[in-house]
Amino acid sequence: MKISVQTGGLIEELGVENCYGAIAEAGFEAIDWNIDHSLRPVDINAGRCEGNCIFEKDMEEILDYYSEELFHIKKNGLEITQAHAPFPAYVIDKPYVLDYMIKIYKKMILFCDRVGCKNLVIHNFTAPRNSDYDLADEAMAINDKLYTSLIPELLETNVTVCLENLFGGGGATTFAGIGSEPEEAVKIIDRYNELAGKECFGYCLDTGHMNRLRHDPRRVIPILGKRIKALHIHDNAGEQDQHKAPYTGTIDWKAFYTSLKRIEYSGDLSFETFNQVRLGEDAKELVEPWLKLIATIGNHFRNKILL
Questions:
Q1: Number of domains the chain contains
Q2: C-alpha count within 13 angstroms, C-beta hemisphere, residue 49
């Protein structure tokens, strides 16, 4: 069980070399690699995809593009335990985007396998409540095309694609996305794995999203059980997706780690606390102390789960 942290926010604050040095110095053993930054959501939503992503290239060009990061990851003794894919995969009224994103995700799966990353988080599609795709069967058909299209690459590799508990709307209109209710997630993941004939799909449980949806980890985690392959650990006050360090919001962290212990969770503890380290030039000296505190919290959680 490795203690991991996202690279997004840190590279922007510290630069590539200092980012990975600071992650290792803080006590982290692994990273959640934000290769989603290879294609911006604003470009995907606008349909400006073609020609904008390195993952259109052949594998050697992609490896060369990321060679500096890969060098510093290895130099600092860090593992790549999970990665985040670009999102969204589908844009309403731009169906061609889905076909493009599937091609990108296929290449990312092969890339993750080359660099030893075992989990790739790919966001599932949930339509806004006021859209023509509000019907569950229509939105689910889009997700089915997305994930089942990836099965050939997954069967060639040791990579697991993880769905995530996403939400839609905001404030009083917040609603659970497709696959965010644990009972539904179990059915979806089991169906995809049955189609693949192999355990190719799992779940990335996002603690901040659980809190936004008022989901109790003591209920959610036991239902998902061994399907949880990855985590996005962060805190909020229940009203916004703040991506802060644990114990800065309202999440019941004892309920979280005791529930993971109950299912004998053996995956990694990965933090997605990028807003905690986006401090700007005036407070840059506080980034590394925050990192060390987050890593200390990770070790605290690990001890509670394993001991």
A1: 1
A2: 23
